[in-house]
Fold:
Amino acid sequence: MQCIEAQMVHFGTHMLAEEADDWWVSTRPLLENGVEGVTWAVFRREFLSKYFPEDVRGKKEIELLELKQGDMSVTEYATKFVELVKFYLHYNVETAEFSKCIKFENGLRAEIKWAIGYQKIRQFSELVSSCKIYEEDTIARYKIMNERKSKQQQSRGKPYSAPADKGKQRVNDESKPRKRDTPAEIVCFRCGEKSHKSNTCSRDVKRCFRCGKKGHTIADCKHDDIVCFNYGEEGYTSPQCNALFLLFIYFIEFSVFRHILFE
Structure:
């Protein structure tokens, strides 16, 4: 809607309230008696001088020049940009649409700027809309990829996951009494009795270490070779007795089998 200068001033001042309205009531007669009169440009200049001084405008302009999207969404960045750009007179003229788009585009994150920049959009509203669409599509694409990745990991399972019954098996194993290694039976070499060693033996009994018999020592033994303590046979010791016995049994079984096979 097109408005003349007087209507713009009337509509603008109609929105003033409380302290600002009191200021305008006292300032209007001074402007009406002045050379310039009460125009929209004069009202705007006086109003900004009163409620928006130059030092504050300077800070807002610097904030706009340094504005970057950073961690903000495109919507948040565009809202902040529009809020600050109105304080920068350079971007408020009709011919500043190109410069406004360039400034907004330079503040975007690198991935959005790279995707949108080549399109050379020079209408601010269209530029903001394209950036929002690209950001929403990117978020949706990453969400789908993460869901697929999560499903694949769940289907494969964890390489270090234990079987379902492993915990129960461990509990059962711990509840069972453990078998302790049975210590070797102690035998006295002097008297041949168990449960004590020869150095603690109190009996004065002679025992031969060669044949294992009592009543004489190895020096008086009649056997020339070692003797098995179990069977009294020469040629092997008692630890070798079982092995020779098994070999003997094997030899007998083999002879019987051979006899049956060839008869």
